[in-house]
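Researcher: Quick test of sequence recovery. Tokens follow.
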């Protein structure tokens, strides 16, 4: 901490925007210490409806912020000010002190650029502040749920915000791995309802209200859980606004250490509906496969609870999964032009056995299908599954953006949305050439394209309201039996 840094104390927090003067080289917007928390009723710490800014209340101006342990009934968190160690307080109130390491990062306003930069590592801009902390037990979920209690340091100009970006990266490097986040909207107590089975497979892009309402109905007014490995809780308010639920919650499980926490599996088990969000399926495979998270999701499915997924969340629903394990974080998506010339291209990473959804056994799922021209790569995946001996006749459900397939317990699916619909593929023979370094030759793959309003049964593999055609790959080039030779 810079010794010359100053944080003048204001007579009232409403003057903050005019009077707070922060002289930092690096450090004042972030402090690392122990949390002193008035926990009799954390919810009362928020002054809801009060837009007044709040400041870090330091009584000894010009001295560094201390990080020694706080003392009960002396160093406490009250409604409008934070008292830190080695300062005297004006008002002591009864408090229970939780000694937990934490980091608080202060900023002002919603920074779209910063949000995009920090989204992959799970830091969240929550309106006017950012809270990054590592409480180890369930207190973390409660504190993050009450993020409206955030502390804001004044109005920063562009120059000052540049320091915020640096300190955010510092905070990210200091924060320990292995902590999950649980953010909940609605009733804080779980209830038990009788959900109905169902699978909502969404192709990514804009979220479809109809698909989410369908999932909510399957949950029968229970607890709706959004599961993800990074990001924030934007789905909570979206789902809660669409549906009549006991709660809508987001559980962020970023790594294998967090996935081993028994509390994480219990939160999944308590939910009536689990929805796996978009993102990067490689995160899900690396962080959740062969952990209690995987076990808990599969236990829910076995009990007949509904499940859904979009984009990367859809990609992990089938028995066979393109894991994207060879992709780089900022690299391009694996393209059809990468796979067709060489189906054993190093980035073609296929896995199986992550989720156990009976209706999706022997099946591959893919999203953003026509929009991102994924037909060629998916034919390569199917050829590999056959050639590697995983299945003699695998199938695929490939869904375009802004489209979804809602599957009932009998296997009958309804296609909804405004996109190009869904494609149901099944090879009728083995690939002729599927070898490392050689272009793919793979003939007579049957395709049934279903637009919105049409139906398809994943049990009988028949549909109505769609178009049937066939595809063949000759030395890496795809041809179609459609009149215009379109592959979509």
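Model:
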């Amino acid at each position: 901490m810079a010794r010359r840094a100053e944080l003048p104390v204001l007579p009232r927090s409403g003057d903050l925007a005019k009077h707070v003067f922060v002289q930092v080289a690096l450090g004042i917007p972030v402090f690392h210490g122990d949390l002193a928390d008035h926990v009799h009723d954390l919810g009362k710490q928020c002054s809801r409806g009060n837009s007044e800014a709040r400041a870090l209340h330091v009584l000894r101006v010009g001295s560094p912020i201390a990080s020694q342990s706080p003392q009960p009934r002396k160093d406490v968190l009250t409604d409008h000010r934070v008292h830190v160690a080695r300062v005297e307080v004006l008002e002591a109130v009864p408090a229970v002190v939780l000694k937990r390491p934490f980091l608080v990062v202060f900023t002002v306003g919603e920074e779209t650029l910063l949000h995009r930069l920090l989204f992959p590592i799970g830091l969240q801009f929550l309106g006017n502040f950012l809270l990054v902390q590592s409480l180890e037990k369930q207190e973390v979920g409660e504190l993050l749920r009450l993020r409206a209690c955030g502390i804001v340091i004044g109005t920063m100009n562009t120059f000052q915000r540049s320091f915020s970006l640096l300190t955010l990266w510092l905070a990210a490097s200091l924060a320990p791995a292995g902590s999950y986040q649980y953010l909940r909207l609605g009733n804080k107590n779980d209830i038990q309802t009788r959900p109905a089975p169902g699978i909502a497979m969404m192709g990514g892009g804009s979220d479809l209200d109809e698909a989410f309402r369908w999932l909510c109905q399957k949950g029968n007014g229970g607890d709706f859980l959004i599961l993800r490995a990074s990001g924030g809780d934007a789905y909570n308010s979206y789902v809660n606004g669409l549906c009549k639920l006991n709660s809508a919650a987001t559980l962020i499980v970023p790594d294998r250490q967090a996935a081993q926490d028994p509390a994480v599996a219990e939160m999944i088990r308590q939910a009536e509906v689990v929805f796996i969000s978009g993102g990067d399926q490689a995160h899900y495979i690396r962080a959740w496969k062969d952990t209690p998270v995987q076990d808990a999701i599969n236990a829910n499915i076995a009990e007949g609870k509904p499940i859904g997924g979009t984009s990367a969340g859809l990609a992990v629903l089938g028995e066979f999964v393109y894991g994207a394990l060879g992709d780089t974080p900022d690299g391009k998506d694996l393209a059809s032009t990468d796979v067709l010339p060489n189906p054993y291209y190093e980035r073609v990473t296929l896995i199986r056995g992550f989720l156990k959804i009976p209706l999706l056994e022997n099946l591959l799922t893919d999203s953003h299908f026509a929009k991102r021209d994924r037909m060629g790569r998916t034919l390569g995946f199917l050829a590999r599954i056959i050639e590697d001996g995983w299945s003699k006749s695998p199938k695929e459900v490939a869904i375009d953006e802004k489209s979804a397939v809602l599957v009932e317990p009998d296997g009958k699916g309804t296609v909804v949305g405004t996109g190009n619909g869904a494609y149901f593929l099944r090879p009728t023979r083995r690939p002729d050439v599927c070898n490392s370094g050689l272009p793919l030759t793979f003939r007579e793959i049957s395709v049934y394209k279903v637009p919105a309003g049409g139906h398809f049964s994943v049990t009988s593999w028949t549909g109505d309201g769609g178009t049937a055609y066939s595809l063949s790959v000759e030395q890496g080039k795809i041809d179609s039996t459609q009149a215009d030779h379109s592959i979509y």
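Residues 158-174 form the longest helix (17 residues).
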